[in-house]
Amino acid sequence: MNNKVTKAIFPVAGLGTRFLPATKSIPKEIMTLVDRPLIQYAIDEAREAGITDFIFVTARGKSALEDYFDSAPELEKSLKAKGKTGLLEELRHTDMESGAIAYIRQREARGLGHAVWCARRLVAPNEPFAVLLPDDVIAGRVGCLKQMVDAYQEVGGNMVATMEVAPEQISNYGVIDPSGSNGRLVTAKGMVEKPSAKDAPSNLAVIGRYILRHEVFDALKEQKTGAGGEVQLTDAICAQIGKSTPVSGYRFEGNRFDCGSKAGYLQATVAFGLARAELHGEFRSYLESITHLPRAAE
Ligand code: UTP
Questions:
Q1: pTM higher than 0.90, yes or no?
Q2: Is residue 96 situated within a structural domain?
Q3: What CATH number does the domain containing 71 carry?
Q4: Tens of pLDDT along 137-181?
Q5: Cα of 42 to ligand 1 centre, how many Å?
């Protein structure tokens, strides 16, 4: 069984309604934490995990994403002429070698499962692949996907990132029904998408990092709709349990920010701002005067 993971799918075709009106013209994934777009954090995490092939599932209105990964010769020339080597180095991070990145269109936002299915022709039958949702930003000593890829070499199957969430939050997530655990790994005997707190089989929520096998496309091809009338990735992964592919949850080490929600995005902005050496002093002093902030922003 081939357990080497070198390909990743980034579903970025969602409508991003929680950030309207901004997302009317700006893809959510281009929104920045300090000065780097959300998508850059996901790409860096994927590279650290050994990903070399990047597949973006995009949609109408997302062309800013494609431009972001293109080279910018005029900008580079001007930075070079001005001797701005630091900024030139920053720009290099955004470069993608020709052929390393592929764009596939999801014609209609029918759910995460449908978005992943749109990339089915770009994944070979015996090839495991990662899925990263860029609006889940995970800060850690070792990237979340790298931790998962390392564990995946041993266990294979389908793997999802998981973390404990509070009961009042659980209905926002896919939730694991665990049958056992070993260190950071949890074996799943089932998964439920967006259960109510009282029906949730555990407090282990599925977070936006996955390593999947091709068999998941067999379930996705049926295009069955689930919670919210969308084709759910969780349901397709769950359908493999007891049939073709076992599923494990990986309890990653790190802090996860839900940048798909306004509160999570603001928390991430504060955390990543404070982590920047050049902002630390000024930004911290400002936060220390926090009691005056709500008025100032009115
Ligand atoms: P979300 O559930 O956050 O949906 O999608 P969304 O459309 O991005 O945002 P809201 O809820 O309307 O504010 C999770 C991930 O799945 C992708 C999104 O781009 C995001 O990365 N997705 C979702 C698709 O690619 N296609 C879809 O049809 C739905």
A1: yes
A2: yes
A3: 3.90.550.10
A4: 999 999 999 999 999 999 999 999 999 999 999 999 999 999 999
A5: 15
